[in-house]
Amino acid sequence: MKADTHPDYHMIDVKMTDGTVFQTKTTWGKEGDQMALDIDPLAHPAWTGGNAKLMDTGGRVSKFKNKYAGLGF
After folding, report:
1. pLDDT, mean of residues 23-48
2. Rounded alpha-carbon distances, angstroms, from residue 35 to 5, 20, 27, 57
3. Residue 10 — φ and ψ, nearest 5°?
4. 58: pLDDT confidence band, cut at 50, 70 and 90?
5. pLDDT reported for residue 1
6. Calpha distance 1→61 (Å, rounded)
7. Which tens digits make up the pLDDT trace of 12-27?
């Protein structure tokens, strides 16, 4: 194996949206850095069961709904 081909693997702090912090190993940043998350399992609708709004860009969502309206979704 060649020397010096792998990135540095070190510990960082990850700050969740509610302010809690945990440590993990990563190649991101440098030792002791803190990564602040904007979206995490505590706030994202995919994990919390919340309702997300669909953005209808150029009528795509409306076109899709009209096309498949009779399928009973």
Report:
1. 87
2. 25, 12, 12, 32
3. -145, 175
4. low
5. 67
6. 51
7. 999 998 999 999 999 9
Residues 6+ apart with CB under 8 A from 61: 54, 55
Banded pLDDT at 73 (limits 50, 70, 90)? low
The conformation of residue 1, written as its DSSP 8-state character, comes to -
Could you give the dihedral angle defined by the CA atoms of residues 20, 11, 27 and 47, in that order, rounded to the nearest 10 degrees?
-20
Q: Which residue has the tokens 């702090």?
A: 13
Confirm if 35 and 11 have CB atoms less than 8 A apart: no
Copy the structure tokens of residue 24.
């993990």
